[in-house]
Amino acid sequence: MSSVEARDRAWLREAVELSRSAPPSDRAFSVGCAIVDAEGRCVATGYSRENDDLVHAEEVAIEKAEAAGVDLRACTLYSSLEPCGARLSPRRSCVTRILEVGIPRVVFAFAEPALFVEAHGERLLRAAGVEVRAFPELADEVVAINAHLLGPVATRRNGSEHV
Ligand SMILES: [Zn+2]
What we know:
alpha/beta; Cytidine Deaminase, domain 2; about 30% helix; about 15% strand; 5 strands; binds zinc ion
């Protein structure tokens, strides 16, 4: 395993752990997010519904990093779930926010199933030139944390047979 892969996996696990802090909802996933700079320091974290009922984990973390004056153009964003490319609420998607602040690299565990919206986050990020890496082997834990939302259909894109 390369050192980059080991570091990615460790931070992604941290993001998955953060998702456990999200207040459960039957209308949205519990997601955790960590933003890490080029020196390997975590500059901001977030989880779903951390400061209001509709806020996404990535949104919270990006807001905190911006407030702290972090240059996000040299950071990697780790999210337990594929960042959303579309939302039911009128807010901007996490993909839009990631592109706005210039985050060049995104690592996630679980590809968002088409449960609430057709999100296409990974495709949109790649199309915009963002490096995207998925660790589907960590998806089972994300599924377990969101078990109240997910049936067998939801794991199809992640190649998991465990649910
Ligand atoms: Zn989102």
